[in-house]
Design brief:
The chain is mainly α. It has 13 helices and five strands. The strands form two sheets. A three-stranded parallel beta sheet has the order 1-2-3. A two-stranded parallel sheet has the order 4-5. The site of adenosine-5'-triphosphate has 20 residues, from helix 1.
């Protein structure tokens, strides 16, 4: 039996190269060695206000993006979170064993709640519990995510271990898969922040569907650090980030990248990055047109069925262990 992968993305906006390099690329690379579940996490998306019509559209768009990125629907399960009600049910159960203190330590809540817990939504606060439910329902071994999700994944592990200890062995304790390069692509305009779909300023992100002209303009506008050297150096995050993008787009080694820019200026670096990004995204942008609504709906319907059958089994086990019974049980 193959081990399992679970991962997901939120239909909160347009996917950017950070999402691709930190997550999707690895979903595709790992999918043949694992039994994979790739979810469109629309219940997570509503932890911040969404326009209902846009959310609906973005949910389908995201499924199309998974497919164009190379997720194979014949072997991987692609589904929408809200189609499998077990996610919300297990989230409730896990909220009864999660502790306020451990959620209060989550940095995403602090960032997205803008440090104002009086006004921040309760759903935003409990977001990591729903994420734990997503993962644990599928008896997941490996979760390919970007670095920003590491802390949430640790909570998923803690909740799995706590449940297993209190109620008996039930959940597989998942491991993160965080790629060595590309797990934390930074905003082009503010390298103290990660690139984010929900960033109000779209110029900080390169979206997977941006055209060549937009990509070139965004990279030209990217902030740089003082100094002139073009080298990997974490103390100069803007150039480090641009070089990392270049490295991932070209497949060159770090040394080759640095050698390529010896004696050259930032303008030259930006020009080469823009070209590399445009070329890298072209096949993806061509493929996205291949999936019509009918094909998409069929894939999502089949995916939901498959996911539901696995999720139901786990949830039943959880209820049984906890002594939760309904009529006729
Ligand atoms: P939002 O701002 O709405 O949270 P997001 O850009 O953070 O959007 P998510 O849908 O939350 O995207 O995350 C999808 C996946 O992409 C996760 O695995 C996450 O870790 C990864 N990811 C997000 N941003 C980056 C980034 N800047 N670099 C690398 N990986 C990232
Ligand atoms: Mg996010």
């Amino acid at each position: 039996m193959k081990k399992r992968i679970f991962s997901g993305a939120q239909p909160t906006g347009n996917l950017h190269i950070g999402n691709y390099l930190g997550a999707l690329k690895n979903w595709v690379a790992l999918q043949d060695d694992y039994e994979s579940f790739y979810c469109i996490v629309n219940l997570h998306a509503i932890t911040l206000p969404q326009n209902p019509e846009t959310l609906k559209q973005k949910t389908l768009d995201l499924a199309r993006i998974y497919l164009a990125a190379g997720v194979n629907p014949e072997t991987s399960t692609i589904f929408i979170q809200s189609d499998v009600s077990e996610h919300a049910e297990l989230s409730w159960i896990l909220s009864t064993i999660a502790r306020m203190g451990e959620l209060e330590r989550m940095t995403q809540f602090k960032d997205k709640g803008k440090g104002n817990s009086e006004r921040a939504g309760v759903g935003l606060f409990t977001y990591p519990i729903l994420m734990a439910a997503d993962i644990l329902l599928y008896q997941t071994h490996l979760v390919p995510v970007g670095k920003d999700q590491k802390q949430h994944l640790e909570l998923s592990r803690d909740l799995a271990e706590r449940f297993n200890r209190d109620f008996g062995e039930t959940f597989i304790v998942p491991e993160p898969y965080i790629p060595p390069v590309g797990a934390n692509i930074l905003s082009l305009l503010d390298p103290t922040k990660k690139m984010s779909k929900s960033d109000e300023n779209v110029n900080g992100s390169i979206f997977l569907l941006d055209d060549a002209d937009t990509i070139t303009k965004k990279i030209k506008r990217a902030v740089t650090d003082s100094g002139t050297d073009i080298k990997f150096d974490e103390s100069r995050p803007a150039i480090n980030n641009l070089l990392t993008i270049y490295q991932l787009m070209t497949g060159k080694t770090a040394k080759e990248c640095e050698e390529n820019f010896v004696g050259k200026g930032y303008g030259h670096l930006k020009g080469e990055i823009a070209e590399a990004v445009v070329e890298y995204l072209q096949p993806f942008q061509d493929r996205i047109k291949d999936f019509d609504d009918e094909t998409l709906n069929k894939i999502l319907k089949d995916g939901a069925e498959k996911a539901r059958s696995v999720a139901r089994k786990t949830l039943r086990e959880v209820y049984k262990k906890m002594g939760i019974v309904g009529a006729g049980n």
